[in-house]
Amino acid sequence: MNKIYGIIRISVILILLFYISVAQTNEFRILAAKGQVLVKKNGKGNWEKIFTGGQINVKDKIKLLPGSYLGLVHSKGKTIELKKDGIYSATQLSKDVAGMKTTMTGQLANLIVSEVGSSSGSIYKDSNKSMNQSGAVERRLDSDFSKPNSSEGSGDRILIQSAIKEHLLNQEVIFEWKRLQSEKEYEFYLTDRFDRLEFSKATTDSFLVVDTKQLKLEKGVYYFWRVIVKGKPELKSDEACFMILTDTELKGLNDTLKLLKEELGSEQTATSKLMYAVFFEKYNLISEAKSSFLDALKIAPDVEVYNNLYYNFLRRHYQSGF
After folding, report:
1. 3 state DSSP class of 162
2. CA 111, 115, 120 angle in degrees (round to 5)?
3. Kind of pairing, strands 240-244 and 165-168?
4. Strands 232-237 and 157-158, sheet pairing
5. Using CA atoms, how far apart are residues 300 and 270, in angstroms rounded to an integer?
């Protein structure tokens, strides 16, 4: 009987060691690949094509042909971009990121990888929940992200071009919407959470710049805005909203952002810009997130995965396409 138990214990140990060994050899996840990018498993055998979402083990060899691109996420969260053609050792790449701080980047990289591998295309499942935080009452926001082909709205609905819901770092905010055909003048209305009017203005433009400090708007609560065609109240937009961060929230955000900057260092890569984009979106700083996504696409414009991430971002936070 003791002999049987001994065999069982040895078998269990061997199985555990096997799975631990496998887990330790999975050094990188493939974030994005463009062109001819190949891998030789364990450095042996034939070269195989790499696919987004796959894994690179510590003993693998990677080959990039001219004009190719590869974005990798290390198991500790550090990102690496390969653009120069040639053969790379996964062991050496792993050594290159060893010892680097990845507290923030690790969390953000996991969010990016989860979206790349998700069919739903949404990093934040609760990004469009009802807005009842900070004392704001529930107000309906339309979730139909239509994509008109023209630069103007159509029918009796003015399409909002600003984010449907966002938090603000700066005191100035730009509100934008699409014109309705043949309509020249619009009335802008800004209300508090109890629908009390804070500010209104008529304009012939399709945007309006507002100084929230000048209006003495309260921090930490949501304000709502909408646009109506002057003299035609039936021709209107849906409501959108924003919140000005409190001083405490702003300090906490800046402290966290400082940590992220320390981890990323002076990196000016597409993956580092994606890190910033995901970070800003996490805190509902939509304008800043959008700018970071566009910076990433300037660096790697032809990487399909990054374009898809940006498209999904627009669908989450904007009513109309760009």
Report:
1. coil
2. 135
3. parallel
4. parallel
5. 6
Question: Each residue of 72-122: pLDDT tens digit?
Answer: 888 777 888 899 999 999 888 888 877 666 677 878 887 888 787 664 444
Of 292, 308, 268, the C-alpha closest to 34 is: 308
Count of CA atoms in the C-beta half-sphere (13 A) of 206: 16
- Domain annotation for the chain: domains and CATH numbers: 2-100 (no CATH), 101-130+246-322 (no CATH), 136-244 (2.60.40.3580)
Closest CA to 34 of 89, 103, 81, 94: 81
pTM above threshold 0.85: no
Dihedral sign from CA coordinates of 40, 42, 44, 45: negative
Distance from C-alpha of 185 to C-alpha of 174, rounded to nearest angstrom = 18
User: Closest by alpha carbon to 211, among 175, 160, 253, 254?
Assistant: 175
Q: How far apart are CA 166 and CA 289, in angstroms?
A: 11
d(CA 166, CA 170): 12
Residue type, 222: Y
CA distance 2 to 97: 47
State which H helix or E strand residue 259 sits in.
Answer: helix 247-264
Task: Give the Cα separation of 146 and 322 in Å (integer).
Answer: 11
Contact by Cβ (8 Å): 165, 241? yes
